[in-house]
Here is the input.
Amino acid sequence: MGCLPSKTYILYPASQTITLELCTFCILIFMHALRKVIFAGFLVSLVLSCAYTWHAEPRTIEGREVCDPMGPFPQMIKIPVFTKAWQIMYSCDRYPQEPTAIAMSMFYMEWSRTFGDPTGRVWRALNKLMVDYDPRPKGGSAYDIAGQYRSEASYGGLALTPSYIWVKPYDDYILCESSLVHELVHISIWAIKGTDGDPDHIGSKFSGWTVDHSALVQRVNDTLCSLGI
Here is the structure.
């Protein structure tokens, strides 16, 4: 077959040619507008779908423990994420279980990155932890962070057993300013050693705590403070 001719010959009146060109132009405009409508409809359906399916509250989790502001106190509330971890609350407004779970999760991530957890002992210890937020002050003899013995000290927190810690709550409700992360280090060392959580910190009487552990506490608390937790 030969090539197409270089010219196109019109066999109908010019008015019909103009009409056809206008119709073609209208069709192109219509198709362009239709594509915009379809795309806009897709975006709207996507937004509505996301807005419909996402919930801030985990309503699909059965038996979720929540603090009852009208109930008697203290209340023992399940800490999410961790299978058998609980916290004792004396007010629903002070240290809800969700911030506690976030702090514990961030602590474990930083611990794993810094020290590792090849046997899973630290994770198992966190999974069965009890956190007591009793607001009543406590004091007595203790070692400070430098390992110095103090016969009289005001406690900010205590690692009482391998699975039970007390954390003094503060009026600003910010966990990063509490001793929670500090006590989690004691619990982790206790899980590894099996005998104690190194109560004298970087002192020489007990082993376990080093300057790297103190730096870890600072890093985790800095991150929590930046998140307002």
Residues 14-53 form the longest helix (40 residues). Strands lie at 75-78, 86-89, 130-132, 139-143, 149-154, 157-161, 164-167.
